Amino acid sequence: MVASAGTALAAVALSPDANAPLHRQLYDALRGAVLSGHLAPGARLASTRAMAVELGVSRNTVMAAFDQLLAEGYLEGRIGAGTYVTRTLPDDALRARRMPTVPPTKSLRGRGVSRRGAALMANPVTQSRTGPPRAFRPGMPAFDAFPTEEWARYVSRRWRAPSPDLLGYGDAAGYGPLREAIARHLAVARGVRCDAGQVVIVAGSQQALDLAARVLLDPGDAVWMEDPGYQGARAAFAAAGTQLVPVPVDREGLDVSAGIARKPDAAMAYVSPSHQYPLGVTMSLSRRLGLLEWARTAEAWVLEDDYDSEYRYAGRPLAALQGLDSDGRVIYLGTFSKVMLPSLRLGYLVLPPDLVDAFVAARAVADRHSPSFEQAALADFIEDGQLERHIRRMRMLYAERQAVLIDAVKRELAGMLDLVASPAGMHVVGWLPAGVDDREASARAAEHGVEAPAISQYYAGAPGRAGLVLGYAAVPAKESRAAVRRLAAALGDMR
Prior knowledge:
- By secondary structure, this protein is an alpha/beta fold.
- The chain folds into three domains: 5-94, Arc Repressor Mutant, subunit A; 146-384, Type I PLP-dependent aspartate aminotransferase-like (Major domain) (Aspartate Aminotransferase, domain 2, 3-Layer(aba) Sandwich), CATH 3.40.640.10; 389-492, Aspartate Aminotransferase, domain 1.
- It has helices at 5-10, 22-36, 48-55, 59-72, 91-94, 115-122, 148-160, 164-167, 176-189, 205-216, 231-239, 256-262, 285-298, 356-367, 372-383, 386-412, 438-447, 477-492, and strands at residues 44-45, 75-78, 82-85, 199-202, 222-227, 243-250, 253-254, 268-271, 301-305, 330-335, 347-350, 418-419, 427-431, 467-471.
- Helix 2 packs across helix 4, helix 9 crosses helix 15 and helix 10 packs across helix 14 (356-367).
- The termini are far apart.
């Protein structure tokens, strides 16, 4: 039944205590009445003055709602005759509909999401948790130790006197001085051989993975994946329609001979050789050379993810695999999410020269370029030596926090969790006794306020051993000890 304009108005209830302003509440109410059919096409509305009196609000409130509805085509004004519900909306839009509480799997035209969309839904990046970090979320740096005042000075200095080149569209490859600073930093810190022209700035490592999948792989191409391995990489390559080939990881890193046995003609191998995620092992030199030899003969690509390798506590960080590559087969990716902050959303790719143009074109399509002011501030931060100083401080801090975690686990979780010190990184793996389900253990830990992902979720197949991944970098000592006690209570409940 279609209501009159007066009846529909009587049902409008405006509240000054609501989150939305009064004019928005009125707009929503009238728009809803039009779309539901409670206000018929051609129905005449009361004047703004009369409606304001009726609702007990100012006339400006009513006029603001009317102006928006007129602009969007729900109402139409007739000179000297008042305001009416438009007659031109299609019948489908005016038919009352109940919106489902769960979005349908098919669109209104009967089509579902694309195969790529379905693959994205089937492979969520589960590590993308929001909010402040808590014990023991992996992959989170120490927010409490970040040099916020120094960083704020670099950002504000750029904004106080902005140069015109930072106010317009930027280079899709990234801000030139930042690319130069990254190339110099990587040469010293990681043994990467490149110049600024090979560096492309991206919005973190996940975009780098997505671009690599788009530019280098066709649907059906095979990709070697570390098993266990990073879920974000698995999601990016699965969404591209590639064939994922799980390759086991042992004490020497990715087992190259197993990869060759399973799929010798793969188009790419994804590896984290300096500090494998999540096991934390380092790829041996013989395996590195074997991987590069396979890539050369198979004409395949090697995607090297160097996400947290600068945090090595015994000796200098190991040189990157890219520095050993003499055939231009290695694509190197890094991110500032671990050495700075995840919210900065800045990372980089170091590409063989012949690939730069293709990646820059794909980067431009994806989101044009990263924010220019943050890039400029980061370039200054690196050039002034602030990044290197911050990394040195965090290296010491994270070594201390790992030691606190291991000591607490030995005291509180003896016999329940076997934790071995790692010479690098921001997390360790705690191994559970035989017969314990690590997914159940992770769920029990969550009930006690502790994040401890199950190692089994990083495997494509059946894991060899049950365990929990514990990130310690973001957890101060006092909080770490308290969280270990809660974890002990959680695992104790499973006995």
